[in-house]
């Protein structure tokens, strides 16, 4: 089992629950922090001391307070730690349920496991840690397993999401060309935007733009 683990979680009750779960797994060298910046500093020092952490268990959302931290989220922390220690195992423990964000964690941040917080999530967290330690397989909560299998999640790209996001905040199809040009998003021609929007409506079986936005929000894509 892992011998040295760091937990990044800003809620005391959850931090204690995770800590207890790891002790039950016979992990005794545990370090906890409520701030992403502090977690990164601990990881840096461990590397300097030639005693690096083997596993990071982190939330994604951290409530802001009086401190002005550089790292604002779990994603920021994961990216920073991966740059320092590419081989560290990472388990995300979060209430996040948006398909695209979870998919991005596996594909872009290269996490090893995602466990969604819930009533029975501590036993599942233990299972995820055991899986990550004993195998090279990725672990994801059964309720969110479709994220790595769903054809919709796999085929929708960043450009599609940008288009839908701008529509959802009130940018009209006619205004999209100039908006994309200002933001440097390409392709940004009127015809390309129209074709992509029509493709999305067909793909999601949406009757109109409003219906398309509603469907994608329900799916957690925006």
Describe, in plain words, how this protein is organized in 3D.
This protein is an alpha/beta fold and 222 residues long. Helix content is 50%, strand content 12%. The protein is built from 10 helices and 6 strands, in the order βαβαβαβαβαβααααα. α1 (12-24) crosses α5, α2 runs parallel beside α3 (74-84) and α7 packs across α10. The longest helix is centred in the middle third of the chain and has 14 residues, at 121-134. The protein is elongated. The mean pLDDT is 89.
Question: What is this structure's SSE topology?
Answer:
Layout: E1 4-8, H1 12-24, E2 29-33, H2 36-48, E3 55-58, H3 74-84, E4 89-94, H4 99-107, E5 113-116, H5 121-134, E6 139-140, H6 151-155, H7 158-168, H8 173-183, H9 190-203, H10 209-218
Parallel strand pairs: 1-2, 1-3, 3-4, 4-5, 5-6
């Amino acid at each position: 089992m892992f011998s040295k683990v760091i937990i990044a979680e800003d809620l005391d009750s959850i931090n204690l629950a995770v800590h207890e779960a790891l002790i039950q797994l016979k992990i005794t060298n545990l370090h906890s922090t409520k701030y992403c910046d502090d977690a990164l500093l601990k990881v840096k020092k461990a590397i300097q001391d030639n005693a690096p952490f083997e596993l990071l268990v982190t939330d994604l959302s951290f409530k802001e307070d009086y401190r002005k931290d550089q790292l604002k989220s779990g994603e920021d922390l994961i990216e920073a730690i991966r740059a320092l220690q590419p081989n560290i195992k990472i388990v995300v423990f979060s209430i996040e349920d948006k398909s695209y964000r979870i998919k991005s964690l596996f594909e872009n941040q290269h996490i090893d496991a995602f466990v969604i917080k819930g009533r029975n999530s501590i036993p599942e967290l233990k299972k995820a840690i055991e899986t990550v330690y004993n195998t090279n397989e990725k672990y994801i909560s059964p309720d969110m397993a479709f994220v790595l299998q769903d054809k919709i999640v796999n085929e929708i790209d960043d450009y599609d999401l940008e288009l839908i996001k701008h529509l959802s905040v009130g940018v009209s199809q006619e205004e999209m060309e100039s908006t994309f040009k200002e933001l440097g998003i390409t392709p940004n021609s009127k015809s390309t935007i129209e074709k992509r929007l029509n493709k999305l409506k067909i793909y999601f079986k949406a009757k109109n733009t409003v219906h398309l936005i509603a469907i994608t929000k329900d799916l957690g894509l925006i």
